[in-house]
Amino acid sequence: MRNKKYRCKGRAAQAAAAALLFAGILSGCSERAAQTAVSEEEISIPIILTVDPSSGIRNEEKLINTFNQMYDGKWQADVEWVMETEEEYRQNLKRQNVTDTLPVVITDLRMLPAYYYMMIQDGRIEELSAYIEGDEEWMAMIESSVLESCTEEDGSIYLSPISTAAFSCSGMFWNEELFSQAGIEKFPETWEEFWDCCERLLSCGITPLALHTEGTAWAPMLIATAEAASSEEGAAFLEEFYPETYQNESGLRIAGTLQRLFSYTTDDALYTDFDVAYDNFFSGRAAMIPNGYWMMDQIPEECRDKVRFSAFPENKLVSSPETFGWAIVSGYSEEIKEGAAALLKLRTQLNMEQREELFAKDPEEMIPAERDYIAAYKNSPKLVPNYQVKWNSVLQEETLGEILPALAQGKMTPEEFTAKEEESIRRVLEEQ
Question: What fold characterizes domain 168-319+370-431?
């Protein structure tokens, strides 16, 4: 931010009293002019956003450009674009909190449950209900289920919500050409059909799944948790916040599914992150990859006619709208936080407009995966919670990356795997 200084020069020290008084008046006017100039100066809203390592796309670039055009001369989103995975970004949030270098707007906070609640307890993020509930226009943009997901039990709001859950769902992207080569005409509707589909692809020399073990094991965990929700016990387990144990029927089921999934993936799936899985899928080296609507923009042009989307078997989608909530960091001036709130409101508005535009769009103008997604979303799917909203950070950020490769290679049994998961609970309790 540029600082402007104004200075008035008085007359000589020997001037008459009247002249001194006049000079004082001029000085006072000049000081007020300086204050006005500073207050009208464009205010910087610092934020860090990622560049997708897989596609090179700047995430949320449309939001930033729209905001800077809309509020030109008043506020400007001052973005530091970083080439990081989502996991790297989240780890850096912790470092920046310790060094007090957090930007005023932070994303992905709810993907780290323990860290999110620590930030609330330490007074590091703003309570936003006055901004949101005090703005009728803003409130009208938000679906009730989305607002509820971002609201704490006491009614407080620390996460600025998106407008709709329509874009927060994950399912399976699949390569129609590779399916056809294996004689498979449609995506499997049951889990039995899913495993049969994997076998049929494999028998034709086609790797069924693009997976990875790093970065909270996003892709395989989506499939494993969706499968666990097939039973009442599993569905209830996935609703638990910070489960007290993983050594139960549901925990063992998830571990067994994970082990089975890795028998159908690429040789380079171990010790790698999602970007490797992404490359394997879009290069045609694997037939399926789980992810959410946000990957539509990351589908290479040459793949758009052959990539399809389906809900997981049994008509399930994984969705947790709160993971898309953004927060405002306390400690900044009211003028900067007001600008940050304006940015978050615009984000809600653009999300609402995106939904309206998509649902009104001519299906013939959509890529096949988009048409599939809308059909899946409108087909009353069973929504399964995202495990990353419920499980402790030690398990997600450290334990899974250490033990999943051993489970995948058969060097660890599901029972041993869940025992290691259990240790993460003990570590969390010790660190508190």
Answer: D-Maltodextrin-Binding Protein; domain 2 (3.40.190)
